[in-house]
Amino acid sequence: MTEVVATNQTIVVVGGGISGMTAALEAAECGKQVILLEKNPALGGRVSQMYKYFPKMCHPTCGMEINLRRIKANSNIRVMTMAEVTNVSGDTGDYTLNVTVQPRYVNENCTACGACRDAVETEFDNEFNYGLNKRKGAYLTSNMAYPQRYVIDPRMIGTADADKAKAACKYDAVDLDMQAEDLEIKAGSIVWATGWRPFDAAKIQPYGYDRIANVITSVELERMMDPMGPTGGKILRPSDGKEAKDIAFIQCAGSRDRNYLKHCSRICCMASLKQTTYLREKYGDDGKATVYYIDIRAIDRFEDFYQKVQADDNVSFIKSKVASVTEDKATGNPVLNGNNLEQSGMGKDMRYANPHELVVLAVGMEPSVDFNALNVGLSVNEEGFIERDPGNGGMFAAGCAADALDVNRAVQSATASSLRAIQVVNQVAGAEG
Amino acid sequence: MSNTAMVEKYRSNFLKEVAENVEEGEWVRMCMQCGVCSGSCPMGPHWEHPPQELFMMIRANKREEVLSSSSMWMCTSCYNCIARCPRELPITHIMHGLAHYAKRLGLAPKENPTNKFSQRFWDNLTKTGRVNELKLGLSLYFMNGFVEGIKTALKMKDVGMGMLKTGRMNPLEILGGHGVKDKSGFQAMLKKAQELEAARVDK
């Protein structure tokens, strides 16, 4: 994969999540040459780690699948995984990207048979499942992984275990001598679709994510719900492995808070509303969800989703930003402490100390890349997202690199940035006649 | 400015009155009523109106109820609310600001222990420029009557003896005690500060 044929009429899309895939596809389906760079071993990004995504409650195996099929069918897209941009030079219509491609240690011969995985014994935290379980040192990131090709963890190199993986492969696909490669790629326009990461919940000290076993994050709950996930689709308490049926959701965990993230992450209210439906799906009338909120921001047409959840007797809403979470040592139940604002000034005791079996922190979104540190001349706002600015030249942000967005809006944003990138390369083509 | 003058000046805009007259009072506008301060307050169950509720009452023009409330006098300055407030409101300072403002207008609850103690502390300190701990302690013991005072004194006698032995308390202080070198200069300074404050308030 050394020779990358790119010209200044090529569009490079950085990041292979739902936004990057969309941006790449829109441009490629308009006949443009696109290189799609992804840092991880497989495409799909955060959306592939969801159980379902709102509002239509799509499984990624459906919604993402379509995009993967489009990519496979399109000869204008060149996908490069394990590739990270280290520098960008040049200007609109004439960029040069420095890209480092990490070794996968598995070549194109791989049939994803899994013999190398079975042969090795070393295990590491499974990043795809936010560390909720372990994976082998030779692995496929997920069943949906594209490309369907195994990876050998670089920490395995030089161990006897890595040799076992090589010996087990019948197709001569394991190549332990693979080296990192530094490439230079030409591009007329760049689309940054580097996405988001969940805010580090441990920083919110009063909520005890780092101390209380049964306090988890919303993204971890998504993994638990996945039938192929770490718990086989069951919502299990980390403390004792029992199924949790009484679950509290704490909204604005990190968002709208000047101590953490200043911005409203926009998706977390809908994410929690969505997750309350998981409880009904799993337990019927036996599940109980309680949402602690400042105000529910089910933006524009999602209001009907909110109303549907409100009508569910198993879901209750408490207007209150939770002050702290403590632990009932005997039961392992987290106890939520705070003030119920709807009882404020009514002469009632508005204090509560409510135990729940499990607490889910609706964590906020922050940009996954520090664009200031990357220093490629992008205008970055206070929250770290890429700002729309003529000074960005032929570089555009798509999806969560631009703002905290849900899937629907990320895809819209990606399509828009794709069109802008197309305009840039069209101008280049026009100038060169 | 007197209480009636303030009522006259601000009519029914208590929020504006707080913003312009209470220390850090302009921050009240920034409160988004999330309730994290009230939930975090260790004194929470013991006061009638926790901070978030006081802020709402200010906006709702409940001037009388807020200024005559004993709630803000309960603040112990633990700073839990400031640490957790998502909008970085200096809640502790606002509580003290409200108490101070109520006191200035003569609306603070007279029988509130914090109010009483603060007045005693101030009177004690301003006499000589140094706190006379013996006199301050005794005046607190006897705040609620002679019998109560004797009882408290007996209860605290071990602490008192300990302080005497280690030289932390001088029994001769009862005769007047020590003070700053330039007592009249100190008094003049206070007077000037009060003049400046009064000029600022009347503006």
UniProtKB/TrEMBL annotation, chain A:
GO terms for molecular function: 4 iron, 4 sulfur cluster binding; metal ion binding; oxidoreductase activity. It comes from the Bacteria. Pfam families: FAD_oxidored. Keywords: 4Fe-4S, Iron, Iron-sulfur, Metal-binding, Oxidoreductase. Gene3D superfamilies: FAD/NAD(P)-binding domain. InterPro entries: FAD/NAD-bd_sf (IPR036188), HdrA-like (IPR039650). The keyword Cytoplasm does not apply. The keyword Metal-binding applies. This is Putative glutamate synthase (NADPH) small subunit. It comes from Candidatus Venteria ishoeyi.
TrEMBL record, chain B:
The keyword Iron-sulfur applies. InterPro entries: 4Fe4S_Fe-S-bd, 4Fe4S_Fe_S_CS, HdrC_iron-sulfur_subunit, Helical_ferredxn. One of its GO terms (molecular function) is iron-sulfur cluster binding. GO terms for cellular component: plasma membrane. It comes from the Bacteria. It holds the Pfam family Fer4_8. PANTHER family: HETERODISULFIDE REDUCTASE RELATED PROTEIN, IRON-SULFUR-BINDING OXIDOREDUCTASE FADF-RELATED-RELATED. This is Succinate dehydrogenase iron-sulfur subunit. It comes from Candidatus Venteria ishoeyi.
